[in-house]
Amino acid sequence: MVPRYSIYKGLQKPLIYRGFKGKFIYWGIGSLVGGLVLGGLIGALTNMYLGGLLTIVLICLGLGYTFLRQKDGLHNKKCYRGIIVHPAQLKISYGNRKKNGI
């Protein structure tokens, strides 16, 4: 009799954190970090209140964009319909061949 082992199937599911899936988790983290850095830089160079406001606006815009892009799917690729012909880019040079003296 062959022993049976249970297989953990949870690895087949996509990684989800607070509504963001897969690669969009990194996009969300990038939006947070980018908003904080740009808002802090603008706040340091101009006005603290302007920097704080821009931090909130940039973070909201980045997360909103990420959320909208996520609706297209993890693997949103362009689908071209019809026949696609790839032209040959071969360059064959016959001048470099050695000629036999026959």
Description of the molecule:
With 102 residues, this protein is mainly alpha-helical. It has helices spanning 23-45, 48-70, and strands at 16-17, 20-21. Strand 1 and strand 2 (20-21) form a beta hairpin. It is flat.
Estimated radius of gyration: 27 Å
Extract low-pLDDT stretches: none
Enumerate how many helices there are, as a single number.
2
- Based on DSSP secondary structure assignment, what is the total number of beta strands? 2
What is the CA-CA span between the terminal residues? 75 Å
Largest sheet: 2 strands, antiparallel
Cross-sheet strand order for the largest sheet: 1-2
Report the β-strand fraction as a percent range. Answer: under 5%
List the helices and strands and how they pair.
Elements (H helix, E strand, L loop, with lengths): L15 E2 L2 E2 L1 H23 L2 H23 L32
Antiparallel strand pairs: 1-2
Helix pairs in contact: 1-2
Compact overview of the structure:
With 102 residues, the chain is mostly helical. The protein has helices at residues 23-45, 48-70; strands at 16-17, 20-21. The chain has a two-stranded antiparallel ribbon with strand order 1-2.
Features:
102 residues; mainly alpha; two-stranded antiparallel sheet; flat
